[in-house]
């Protein structure tokens, strides 16, 4: 760790933090007698806290963001150079990095055409929601306003995106929510008994899980349903990959009922699953794709709502109606640091072969965790895609009873004590916050992967014996 801060300086930082900072997702009562963790520095896959303790970060900044690792001077230099030219101008005008990154991004997304810049994943999803509602008015006489979302999926922290929130503990106490958001069942094969589909498996289960979406559309009335919003791999809801046959059937249903397909790639986008975007594993063609976290690996704030030329053309209108265009603005969508960082981030992923590394290291981590599953009966299921992996902990493999969230947290805490930061589902799904989550940077080495799973092995042994 850099020695630029002495002990007195760090004491002032900790004191200021405790007095004035409101941390995300954090109960602050314990800070009355203890100190918050403050991360001082990061390099590669490692970070250091105010006490000089080194951690191997297995969750890319705690929320699946720093895809290319810490300390990338090339990205910092690109941001600095751009900001000295022009830091900001409203997106009513274009910018050099904004134009170039949009072109580069669309090259990676066949079938997509237009990039709308914004500053967070929540806001990107809201832009898509607003487009669906406006299309309902422009094309369907004010009908087809309903937006379907899936149980266990998460789309953001604003009131509108929480209205499409499939994690009941994340939305608790924040209602009432916006109308015309309707939930569809999850597609988790490990818990297919919750859906009454325990007699099916593989592609049969996948198609049946998708058929449940059609049942909701028919119940609500196809003439009222405008869009379906799904994560390609459910993230905070338990790292759930859809089973074989699911996505093909989903696309078929959307086409049948003229339902726009919105894929939320805020977590999976830009390499996390081993392809540029998670949906590209399944051969589907969405109408909207939203993204944020990995777009610039956290080096600058940027999010994008990407859509097709067909959707874009609906808003090219020379009629006398003064409300005929997409009347929306995102203030910080005009910041140039984001697309400048994103261009360099994408260059690094390409030139260093990080998509290929993601696939290889993801395979290694899955194999390591399968070995641990043989050793520790508390691991009920291991699942994921690329370097986005979950291990669900259960009391009993036959009943699949989840371990208590507090017990799962003990495993996470023990890994932290060993110097490895892992994640878990927490305060999201009532009675189902029992999945350990792993999303190391795409630069991870075999040694890094082994160190992560060794820490998990030690923690499980300590907590469960």
Shape by Cα distribution: globular
CATH class of the largest domain: Alpha Beta
What is the CATH architecture annotation of the largest domain?
3-Layer(aba) Sandwich
Please summarize the sheet with the most strands. Answer: 7 strands, mixed
Integer tally of domains: 2
- Label the structural class: alpha/beta
For the record, give the distance between the C-alpha atoms at the N and C termini, rounded to a whole number.
35 Å
Q: Strand order, biggest sheet?
A: 4-12-11-10-7-5-6
Overall pLDDT: 96
CATH topology of the largest domain: Aspartate Aminotransferase, domain 2
CATH superfamily of the largest domain: Type I PLP-dependent aspartate aminotransferase-like (Major domain)
Number of strands: 18
Rounded to an integer in angstroms, the radius of gyration calculated over CA atoms is: 22 Å
What fraction strand?
A: 15-25%
Helix content: 25-40%
Regions with little confidence, pLDDT below 50 for 5+ residues: none
Query: Treating each run of at least 4 consecutive H or I residues as one helix, how many helices?
Result: 14
Organism: Shimia gijangensis
Keywords: Aminotransferase, Pyridoxal phosphate, Pyruvate, Transferase
Protein name: Taurine-pyruvate aminotransferase
Pfam families: Aminotran_3 (PF00202)
Write the layout of secondary structure elements.
Blueprint: H1 7-20, E1 39-43, E2 46-49, E3 54-57, H2 60-64, H3 73-85, H4 96-107, E4 114-118, H5 121-139, E5 146-150, H6 159-162, H7 168-171, E6 181-184, H8 202-220, E7 225-230, E8 233-234, E9 240-241, H9 246-256, E10 260-264, E11 288-291, E12 303-307, H10 309-313, H11 337-351, H12 354-375, E13 379-385, E14 388-396, E15 401-402, H13 405-417, E16 420-421, E17 423-424, E18 435-438, H14 446-464
């Amino acid at each position: 760790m850099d020695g630029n801060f002495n002990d007195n300086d760090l004491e002032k930082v900790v004191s200021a933090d405790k007095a004035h900072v409101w941390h995300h997702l954090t109960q602050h009562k314990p800070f009355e007698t203890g100190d918050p963790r403050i991360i001082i520095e990061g390099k590669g896959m490692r970070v250091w806290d105010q006490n000089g303790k080194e951690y191997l970060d297995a969750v890319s900044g705690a929320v699946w963001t720093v895809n290319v690792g810490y300390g990338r001077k090339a990205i910092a230099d690109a941001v600095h150079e751009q900001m000295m030219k022009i830091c900001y101008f409203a997106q009513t005008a274009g910018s050099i990095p904004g134009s170039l990154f949009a072109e580069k991004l669309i090259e990676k997304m066949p079938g997509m055409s237009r990039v709308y810049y914004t500053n967070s994943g929540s806001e990107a999803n809201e832009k898509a929601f607003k487009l669906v509602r406006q299309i309902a008015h422009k094309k369907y006489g004010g009908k087809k306003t309903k937006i379907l979302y899936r149980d266990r999926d998460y789309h953001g922290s604003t009131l509108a995106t929480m209205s499409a929130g499939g994690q009941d503990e994340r939305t608790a106490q924040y209602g009432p929510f916006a109308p015309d958001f309707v939930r569809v069942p999850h597609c988790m094969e490990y818990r297919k008994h919750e859906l009454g589909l325990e007699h099916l498996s593989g592609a049969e289960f996948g198609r049946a899980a998708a058929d449940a979406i059609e049942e909701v559309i028919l119940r609500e009335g196809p003439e009222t349903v405008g869009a379906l919003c799904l994560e390609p791999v459910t993230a905070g809801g338990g790292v759930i990959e859809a089973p074989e046959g699911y996505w093909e059937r989903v696309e078929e249903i959307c086409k049948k009922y003229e339902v726009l397909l919105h894929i939320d790639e805020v977590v999976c986008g830009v390499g996390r699953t081993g392809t540029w975007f998670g949906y590209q594993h399944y051969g589907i063609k969405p109408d909207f794709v939203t993204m944020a976290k990995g777009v610039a690996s956290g080096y600058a704030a940027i999010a994008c709502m990407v859509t097709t030329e067909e959707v874009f053309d609906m808003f090219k209108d020379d009629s006398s109606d003064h409300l005929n265009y997409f009347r929306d603005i995102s203030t910080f969508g005009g910041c140039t640091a984001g697309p400048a960082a994103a261009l360099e981030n994408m260059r690094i992923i390409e030139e260093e072969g990080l998509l290929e590394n993601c696939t290889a290291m993801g395979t290694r981590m899955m194999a390591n965790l399968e070995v641990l599953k043989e050793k520790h009966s508390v691991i009920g299921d291991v699942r994921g895609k690329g370097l986005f992996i979950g291990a669900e902990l259960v009391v009993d493999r036959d009943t699949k009873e989840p371990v208590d969230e507090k017990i799962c947290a003990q495993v996470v805490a023990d890994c932290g004590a060993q110097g490895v930061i892992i994640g878990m589902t927490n305060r999201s799904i009532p009675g189902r916050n029992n999945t350990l989550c792993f999303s190391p940077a795409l630069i991870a080495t075999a040694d890094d992967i082994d160190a992560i799973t060794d820490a998990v092995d030690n923690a499980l042994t300590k907590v469960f014996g």
